[in-house]
Design a protein that fits this description.
- This protein is α+β, with helices and mostly antiparallel strands.
- It has four domains: about 325 residues, TIM Barrel; about 200 residues, Glycoside hydrolase family 3 C-terminal domain (Rossmann fold), CATH 3.40.50.1700; about 140 residues, Galactose-binding domain-like (Jelly Rolls, Sandwich); about 120 residues, Immunoglobulins (Immunoglobulin-like), CATH 2.60.40.
- It contains 21 helices and 42 strands.
- Strands 14, 15, 16, 18, 20, 21 and 23 form a seven-stranded antiparallel β-sheet that branches. A six-stranded mixed β-sheet has the order 10-30-29-25-11-12, sandwiched between helices.
- Strand 26 and strand 27 form a beta hairpin.
- The two termini are about 40 Å apart.
- This is Glycoside hydrolase family 3.
- Belongs to the glycosyl hydrolase 3 family.
Length: about 850
């Protein structure tokens, strides 16, 4: 296993002596204070911006504070890509989140040390990770909900605490990295208006829903930093709110770390919130409120603010000292800081475990699953062989990712797996040109294209490597497609034939993943039958090329790519005629025993502030929560052939699979499952893995069942306040085995306010195979106003062999037993309570155990 930087030994290794956390904290503050005292005001202001420049005279190297680690160390090359955060949440396994956080942190430190301890470190090469995202996923239409741990405050808090502790390590004085929970606070879309949105949230919803996970991240996990949000709260931008950053964060919660703004949030205060007339005023407001670090350059306005008396030198010193104290605690100025051994095999195994634990089986009629080993399987769907649905957003570069198609071929044997893409993702949204439509070489029958890789960007000389690429669908961010290539410049030429599945109008695209704020972009040229049909022009994207074909004969194809800048990948994509794709799907379905359809969404249509405006999607958010019509028609076509239909949903959010619920034989939610996702899906379908994931969000039937997207009130949202009948409920998930529960036992049936409650339940595996069960404890409040219908107050994921029984204990403290009133006051209140324990939310007719609380006890904010 990887050796984590955690425990007192790391402090000894870095600093030579073992001391208490508080003493080291004081020492770091003192060191930072002495350093900052030697800086000029201009130098201090420059250090309060994310791309902090070097100060050679003081021996301070340049450091960009912006690094990412949402579900793997991101955007700096080779790193393990774990399931997207929503998939990790579906595991309901804090121990898994802790382990994943440890690997993310260790890989971040490895990249940092590889660049050199006292060297300049650019963006995405630091030890301050702007993760996790612990906003509440209040509405399935939000495109960035995939980055969160779902809709429930307690689940989010528990998983967030585990991940943060995994990132930072066991020694608070010497963190492996510093975690940055975000976006503080009340931030969850819509994306198109996020830069100027003002949330008028009630005191009850603020305390009951939006703040608990942040409180846990600071009070329990002791996160070293926090990111304030773009939006305003009741008219005051979050990054300029003295109440939020001062009274609540530093006062009530005792936060000692640094606050960073979301990127360009200070500019937004001027340009969109119109909070101040210029960036000098906005910067002064943010700094005085407690925002130490500005992601962006708006804090240049602090020069004018200082000259005009809007801020003082002490304001600059306080922020700068907090920042440099963090760098000292991270060991950035200590020459003895170690490099860490890497264990790629263990990391890959953890990625597979994480993907496997994230699988949620929603339907399994007549035990359709697991599939038999010798079954002929038709694999269809736009997500069956696409890299993007493995990696999601905020990801590293996976060296050997396994798509679902590859996983199925390896698990069941290539001769047993037939494949047809079958559909585009949505109307007007391209997908990778599949290997079935590509042939390498004249007259050949080898799927894919011949790729010639040149060390020269001008294609001069002989290629240094030649290979067959199944598709052109590559992530090359800081990692060239061939190890011997210089990542700063190379060229690739792909040749072969395009084999259309049928006549009709095709649109071809070459999408290059553009780098953010970097020099130049990569030239690409696409030729069909010897004619140039698409090429880049300056910094613009390659234009699409419309092609009409009257038959299915092969057409010569050539794609040339010159990697000259910092762009991060290349993808040959198309929109094929629907009739031709459906006809191809029918052919493979007719030749198979069972159909496995990989459908859903992708990070190309749901995500952060995307430039997407097609039916069902807008700016990264969704306007329709159903399955896109192109894919729905594919499912209906497949089902019409009379074969068993297994639907694998790959998405970052809930999709209203109403037709599939009624007509499919099995449904598996696989999320965006990371680099080992294809293996985990195939092993789950084969029964090698027994699914035990649970939904971290409610699957609604229709967006019309929800309040308006812009309404941040919780009434009618999430399982806690939704009064309707969901398609699938928060906490749902099936297994290939069965479990039975005895009646829960309580430590007492009457409590005084402030006393904890012990709950124990006996759970046994009544099936014939080992499986995991997620034991869930819900509290209902029949006598309380302003209360949720029910609330998760405890959960544990346990593994039981066939026939095994185990007593599963829970400790419900005062906060778990508390309620928030209309004024936002949290307290343990007198009344009668109902408790339900099981593998899902309480069902109709399930009898609760009851207890009463006497008295009243207010809780700390």
């Amino acid at each position: 296993m990887r050796r984590r930087i955690a425990g007192p030994w790391f402090g000894v290794l870095l600093w030579g002596v073992a001391v208490t956390v508080s003493a080291m904290s004081d020492q770091a503050d003192e060191q930072a204070g002495r350093l900052v005292a030697q800086m000029t005001p201009a130098e201090k202001i420059a250090q309060l911006q994310s791309a902090a420049p070097a100060i050679p005279r003081l021996g301070v190297p340049a450091y960009d504070w912006w690094s990412e680690g949402l579900h793997g160390f991101a955007r700096h090359g080779d790193a393990t890509v774990f399931p997207q955060a929503i998939g990790l949440a579906a595991s309901w396994d804090p121990a898994l989140l802790h382990a994943v956080g440890g690997v993310v942190a260790a890989q971040a430190r490895e990249h940092f040390m590889a660049a050199g301890l006292r060297k300049d470190h650019g963006r995405y090469n630091g030890l301050t990770l702007w993760s996790p995202n612990i906003n509440i996923f209040r509405d399935p239409r939000w495109g960035r909900g995939q980055e969160t741990y779902g809709e429930d405050p307690r689940l989010t808090a528990a998983l967030g605490v585990a991940f943060i502790e995994g990132l930072q390590g066991d020694d608070a004085a010497h963190p492996t990295v510093i975690a940055t929970p975000k976006h503080f606070a009340v931030h969850s879309g819509p994306e198109p208006g996020r830069h100027g949105f003002d949330v008028d949230v009630s005191p009850h919803d603020l305390e009951d829903t939006y703040l608990p996970a942040f409180r846990a991240a600071i009070v329990d996990a002791r996160a070293g930093s926090i990111m304030c949000a773009y939006n305003a709260i009741r008219g005051v931008p979050a990054c300029a709110s003295p109440w939020l950053l001062g009274e609540r964060l530093r006062g009530d919660w005792g936060f000692k770390g640094f606050v960073v703004t979301d990127c360009d949030a200070v500019d937004d205060m001027t340009a969109f919130h119109h909070y101040r007339k210029d960036n000098a005023g906005s910067s002064a407001s943010a700094l005085r409120a407690g925002a130490d670090l500005n992601c962006g350059v708006a804090y240049d306005g602090l020069r004018s603010a200082l000259a005009g008396g809007q801020i003082s030198g002490r304001d600059l010193d306080a922020a700068a000292i907090r920042l440099f104290a963090s760098r000292y605690r991270l060991g950035m100025f200590d020459a003895s800081a170690p490099r860490l051994p890497d264990d790629p095999v263990a990391d890959r195994a953890l990625a597979l475990r994480a993907a496997g634990e994230s699988m949620v089986l929603l339907k399994n009629r007549a035990n359709t699953l697991p599939l038999k080993a010798d079954t002929r399987i038709a694999v269809i769907g736009p997500n069956a062989d696409a890299l993007s649905v493995l990696e999601a957003n905020y990801h590293g570069t996976a060296r050997d990712p396994v798509t679902p198609l590859q996983g199925m071929q390896r698990q069941f044997g290539a001769k047993h797996v037939l494949y047809a893409q079958g559909a585009t993702l949505a109307e007007g949204v391209p997908v990778p040109v599949p290997g079935t439509a590509l042939r390498a070489g004249q007259g050949g029958d080898v799927p894919g294209l011949k790729g010639e890789y040149f060390q020269s960007v001008s294609f001069s000389g002989r290629p240094s490597a030649t290979r067959i690429d199944r598709t052109v669908d590559m992530d090359t961010d800081h990692l060239p497609p061939e190890e011997h290539l210089d990542g700063r410049g190379y060229a690739v030429r792909w040749t072969g034939q395009l084999l259309p599945p049928g006549p009709g109008d095709y649109t071809l695209f070459v999408r290059v993943d553009r780098c953010f704020d970097c020099r130049g972009h990569d030239p690409v040229r696409l030729y069909l039958d010897g004619r140039l049909i698409s090429a880049t022009s300056g910094d613009k994207e390659s234009p699409s090329a419309k092609v009409h074909v009257d038959d299915v004969r092969p057409h010569d194809l050539r794609l040339e790519w010159q990697h000259t800048g910092e762009d991060q990948g290349i993808h040959l994509q198309w929109i094929a005629p629907e009739d031709a794709q459906l006809a191809e799907a029918k052919r493979v379905v007719d030749a198979a025993d069972v159909v496995v359809a990989f459908v859903g969404l992708s990070p190309d249509v749901e995500g952060e502030e995307l430039k997407v405006d097609v039916p069902g999607f807008l700016g990264g958010d969704r306007t329709d929560i159903g399955l896109p019509p192109t894919q729905q028609r594919l499912l209906e076509t497949a089902a019409g052939r009379g074969k068993p239909l297994v639907v694998v949903l790959m998405s970052g959010s809930a999709v209203a699979m109403t037709w599939a619920r009624d007509h499919a034989d099995a449904i598996l939610a696989a999320w965006y499952p990371g680099e080992q996702g294809g293996t985990a899906i195939a092993q789950t379908l084969a029964g090698v893995l027994n699914p035990a994931g649970r939904l971290p969000v409610t699957f609604y039937r229709d967006a019309r069942d929800l309040p308006p997207f812009i309404d941040y009130g919780m009434r009618g949202r999430t399982y806690r306040y939704f009064q309707g009948e969901p398609l699938y409920a928060f906490g749902d998930g099936l297994s290939y085995t069965t479990f039975a529960y005895d009646a829960p036992r309580l430590s007492a049936r009457q409590l005084r306010a402030g006393e904890p409650l012990g709950v124990t339940v006996d759970v046994r595996n009544t099936g014939t195979r080992r499986g995991d069960e997620v034991v869930q404890v819900y509290l209902a409040y029949p006598d309380a106003t302003d209360a949720p219908r029910r609330a998760l107050v405890g959960f544990q994921r346990v593994s039981l062999a066939a026939g095994e029984q185990r007593a599963v204990p829970f400790h419900l403290d005062s906060r778990a037993l508390s309620l928030v009133d209309a004024e936002g006051v949290r307290a343990v209140r007198e009344g009668r309570y109902e408790l339900f324990v099981g593998g899902r939310q309480p069902t109709a007719g399930q009898a609760p155990v009851t207890f009463t609380i006497t008295g009243h006890a207010d809780l700390p904010r």
